[in-house]
């Protein structure tokens, strides 16, 4: 079983000391640690942020070098320059407890037209330009492997999501609807960065496109939002068809440091931006 090195200050101090010993420096560990934190205030902040995270999140964070972690983190933060600053951050935390307003709509939604790269099975589909471009790259890679992806759902307005949730409550009852559908203001779809591939059900995972996407999406910056076995974390049951575009750097960060669970990484990034 993996043991988190970030689970307590003590563990982090051991971590720093480990780095020092491996660098062949003096063994005055506490002083060395203080010096390190003075030299790099990010290390102290890292400790505060990681300490604030849930036990479940801490448990998936593997052993590693905190300076390597910070270098990876800064690469992810830097990657935000690839996204429009007029819209919400690509790492905006949205879930059952973190919402977006009724009036939020991405500035420049691109309408998805019928095309040769991927199929669409609904009208009125649209995405933020960054995710639209990334979808084309993903679809081209799939095409190169002889696979056509079908897009079924993309941006949804607050109003649309409100009606959709009400619909699922009617069909499945409130309890089931809460597991599969987001209330208005809590859906990644309102950000214009998430999409559902078809078919929008568990059968997708066993299709050839489903297996291809599961294996390859992250290489192109698409992250599976609601993985199997994390309903207590994400609030939603496994959705093999739902991906959010966050960029290649963030997908790598998610896989390397957060057990490949998007929710843990988003919570970390949210806390990092919030804390001094
Ligand atoms: Zn979805």
UniProtKB/TrEMBL annotation:
The keyword Cell division does not apply. The keyword Hydrolase applies. Keywords: Carboxypeptidase, Hydrolase, Protease, Signal. Residues 126-247 form the D-alanyl-D-alanine carboxypeptidase-like core domain. It holds the Pfam family VanY. Residues 1-22 form the signal peptide. One of its GO terms (molecular function) is carboxypeptidase activity. GO terms for biological process: proteolysis. PANTHER family: D-ALANYL-D-ALANINE CARBOXYPEPTIDASE, PEPTIDOGLYCAN L-ALANYL-D-GLUTAMATE ENDOPEPTIDASE CWLK. This is D-alanyl-D-alanine carboxypeptidase.
